[in-house]
Amino acid sequence: MPEATGIVGEFLSLREEADADLLAMQCGDFYEFFAEDAELVAEELDLKVSQKSSHGSSYPMAGVPVDDLTPYLKALVERGYRVAVADQYDTDDGGHAREVVRVVTPGTLLETSDADAQYLAAVVAGEGYGLAFADVTTGRFLVADAEDRGEALTELYRFSPVEILPGPEVRTDDDLLSELDGTLTPHETEAFAPKRAAHAVGEQFGRETVDRLDVSREAIAAAGAVLAYVEETGAGVLASMTRIGAHHGDDHVTLDATTQRNLELTETMHGESEGSLFSTIDHTETSAGGRLLKEWLCRPRRSPALLEERLACVEGLSTAAMAREELRDRLGEAYDLERLASRATHGSADARDLVAVRETLAVLPAVADVVSSTPDLADSPLPDRLEEPDREAAGALCRELEEAIAEDPPSTVTQGELLRRGYDPDLDEVIERHEAVQAWFDGLAEREKRRHGLSHVTVDRNTTDGYYVQVGKSAADGVPEEYDEIKTLKNSKRFTTDELEEKERELLGLEEQRGELEYDLFAELRDRVGERAELLQDVGRTLAEVDVLAGLATHAAENRWIRPDLHAGEGLSIQAGRHPVVEGTTEFVPNDVALDDDRRFLIVTGPNMSGKSTYMRQVACIVLLAQIGSFVPAREAEIGLVDGIFTRVGALDELAGGRSTFMVEMSELSNILHSATEDSLVILDEVGRGTATYDGISIAWAATEYLHNEVGAKTLFATHYHELTGLADHLPRVGNVHVAAEEREGEVTFLRTIREGPTDRSYGIHVADLAGVPGPVVSRSREVLDRLRDEKAIEARGGGDDEPVQTVFDVGSGSFRGPANADGGERPAESRSSPESSDGGESTKGLDPDAKRVLEDLEGIDVAETAPVELLSKVSEWQRTLEDR
Ligand SMILES: Nc1ncnc2c1ncn2[C@@H]1O[C@H](COP(=O)(O)OP(=O)(O)OP(=O)(O)O)[C@@H](O)[C@H]1O
């Protein structure tokens, strides 16, 4: 194929240079995709493909209008493509050329409509792991250190980045990469070079700030790589990243990825947001508030001072119901300031965005007024919190915007009507002249009617004819001479005049002048707003915090939640606690929990479906809620602050991930045993269930001993292995509780009440019945269970009709004893299986016939009844048999 020239040639060469999957190139009023890109985009976005010829060849072409690019870009990026955008510019010789100005990727997409945070992350491995997270839509920038891969994954899960830049060593770490969810972008290795990265971070945030952060080289390398990437992709938002924060694990409660999932913090186990803890307690009015609440839930805190401050705010807000509602009304008028700040910095904010900035800045003093005039709030830490942003600067910026931006500006920024009168004298003059000419046009029809005695005269404009005077057919013959006919319609004629044309030129000139002048003034104003990104982020953050606190107070007030007593001690005492999500869906039976120095490990037994999991999760959720600064669903709660919450609950199949259910269960257990400390809360639900019963019990047993003796964490362990309840007699700090159920005339009622001591009934068959297992299976299960309880033995049914019973399983020895008599009794011992029989015994499996015979002989001997000499001769006989083999 001959080499393409012209526009297609330009496209193909830019395409080759661009580090992207697709290129959108501006050609006048359209962004065009050519060749393979056109076909791909057309298929993904349902666009029409046309053909463009170049140099004798024809190329597929698909395009979108310039003003419509954003939604298309968004859709492509959300499908995982990296899209380069080439803009057109005028060349000196009067022609056009294009250059790539931006590569839009999942982590640098500014135009997101999703309220969630959108993090771009980098991970660097070295002595430990260094991580950096940036949200280009809000300017948030954080760095964190992680000791090992597990910790790094925990942080990554917490921030849930949409795009991840793996550092050079991480790129080959398949174990880590396979656990990551976002788009992986292997960015150039040099960006991770420690010196270059440290320089970039110092330049962006100030060298002193970086020193103060006290994070590893790896974290700085990750931060440098993120900055380089944001700059190279041309998102143009570096200026909104004014502050770097260090995320120190020590300040936060450790919540590993599994626990965040198990406690269904932001989505349920089935991936739905409805039914999650977040969706239950979220009463925020703003998207920034919702985002912050999610952040709090995934990052509970350990600082008592901070938590008490939040709790005091929630308390004030929950008491002052009227003021709270007023505050929430005010907050409802706020927009997402952090995001607006990024758009202003980037230069993509329009006049309506600046109106939104102004309106939101005005919410702060309104909120402050409500707070200061309400005693319950004025005495809380809220007023101090509201003083944190520079209120004076915020007020000044608000006034400046008020004076500048028109009341209801258009969404385009190039066609004027953005700014108010009095904002700029030059603009006022142009506007006056423009309006004078406009007024001339507005009065023209009336004037012409009067002047020439015409009826049916209108004046209008369209793109082909420009301005014209339209006269009804009946009056058209009477028009004066200077009228030039330009078009005949069915019922009328259109005319122009020299004067009209001159005025039109004047009007168009003024329109253009006004548009350009307004745009320049607007762009300057927008830049000034962009320079105040830090201020806007402060105000946005403060409003978001008030929103979260007011939302928590609303939930507390509506659901009778109470303020927990936090302390640094070991204990955990909750009276009449409820599960925060389940209490909203059912008549909930409240329950207590009491753990202290002497009793730190509870074994929770109880029937299937009785509520063991709910009880344990309820305890974990209450502790977690207390450590975000929320009230909790209980009558009373005294909570010793924890440093981590670890859970291992019902396994979700991870077969797709290549790991068996049991493997997942064990690696989660392993993580808990390694990571939990005596200040942690551990929730174990049925550990060991995924393997053979005796293996399972042994693992559960040993894990209990280890947690009790070595780790000392506060632990709740639900199990169906009733054997474990015996541990309470041997380990001093282990206690037993059970969920009560009542059985009357074969009917089981779940009471949902936690009682002291163990239980050994599972009522599993009752649950099987409830679940619709066929009747014969349920009744046979009951029979089997009764026999097992009474006789510790049960016959297996099957085979032909004449011999329905074949073998008997002895629960005591754990093996089949041989065929039962027709009357259900056992056969005499001498008729026990021969070596060849199918039940030759688990113990002799894999042995040769001689060895088997020896073993069976040995088994058959009754030592008490056999003379020593006879025994000796037997032993030497066996030896001979074995030697001869
Ligand atoms: N305190 C309570 N009050 C009212 N309903 C409850 C309570 N606790 C649990 N439930 C309800 O009981 C059902 C079973 O609870 P859960 O799953 O916790 O039982 P479980 O004992 O862990 O069961 P299994 O041993 O079979 O896993 C759930 O539907 C839950 O909504």
From TrEMBL:
It comes from the Archaea. Residues 486-520 form a coiled coil. Residues 831-841 have a biased composition (Low complexity). ATP binds at residues 606-613. Belongs to the DNA mismatch repair MutS family. PANTHER family: DNA MISMATCH REPAIR PROTEIN MSH1, MITOCHONDRIAL (PTHR11361:SF34), DNA MISMATCH REPAIR PROTEIN MUTS FAMILY MEMBER (PTHR11361). This is DNA mismatch repair protein MutS. The lineage of its organism: Archaea, Methanobacteriati, Methanobacteriota, Stenosarchaea group, Halobacteria.
